[in-house]
Amino acid sequence: MSSTASKGRIQSTLRHFLDKEASGGIVLMIVAVLAIITANSPVAEDYFHALHVYIGPLSLQHWINDALMAVFFLLVGLEIKREMLDGQLSSWSRRILPGAAAAGGMLFPALLFVFFNRQDPSALRGWAIPTATDIAFALGVISLFGSRVPASLKIFLAALAIIDDLGAVIVIATFYTEDLNLMALAGAAIVLGNLIIFNRMKVTALWPYLVLGAALWVLVFASGVHATLAGVMLALTIPLKLTPGTPEATHAESPLHKLEHSLHKPVAFIVVPAFGFANAGVSFAGVTADVFAEPLTMGVAAGLLFGKLVGVLGTVALLVKLGLADLPAKASWGQMMGTALLCGIGFTMSLFIGLLAFNDPVVQDNVKIGILMGSVVAGILGSICLMVFSRRGG
User: Fold this and answer.
1) Domain assignment present for 320
2) Cβ-based burial of 361 (10 A; exposed 0-12, middle 13-18, buried ≥19)
3) What pTM was estimated for this model as a whole?
């Protein structure tokens, strides 16, 4: 076989992998494992040192967590806006089931975390850590089952995770903002106002939004509000529709759709893996079994595993019982239980909130262990449920 044909087959296989819905989640799983292995290897000291090397005004870890993750939040904001205005969440009838399930899936994990940490006021700052669902991980896992899981259930999970992300953004903005620089905040408001004016004037070129978006990030960073929220603010000003009178079919060429499409692969295969590798690494050197029984660790793990299950499945059961909603088409209660368990995979956003909540590296490690425990067990049990209760094409 010629080298050209072999190269073409490799490129085709790679392109197929990159286009698969589950690929982002698979890459994130691999990167998380690599981070843990690296943090417990002979190069662990170099790994942790490299994260704290300064590149200009920020360390490498801060560039990843504050700048690169702003791109992740930009994509999150674009997805939220599109789904709310023109997608699966565009009407109240479509929003009620995933919306209520997302709310229940945030409330119960938070309550469970508070229960475990009620004796430690300082630990209560982490109450929001187990409330988040990792959309890439969860959708990656459920996509592995292909047609055995009904499409309606995948849509439900995606909608729930998007609303969950919106809740996480609100929580970060409300509860994890430190001292404010009012001058920088005023500057950010002026820039945001100009972005809104661009939107109202039907400006469809992306570059003016992106240039002002960069200025917005700098000002939000300086204001004390977490810089990644600049990504969400920018996303909400990107036009979804073209000018009035434009045929509906061409709306797929709108600035929002173009930007969202161009960001999907970089975020899935560069931004989120970089964040995962920089933040998932936890050293188990000196870690004893007692760490796994720490209230903070248990609160995070139990919140993700049991809190998400009770919150999501319980809310769905209540709405169906009251006749306010129906189960997703062709989905069984067993499949819904498996999906609710997958909501307990809280990797990316949970890690992000954990880093905002606590500055002590030892406490951060306990949080990471809790996230890993809860997410891994939730993912395994959710997969088993879907495997047992799903039939191909059913």
Assistant:
1) yes
2) exposed
3) 0.80
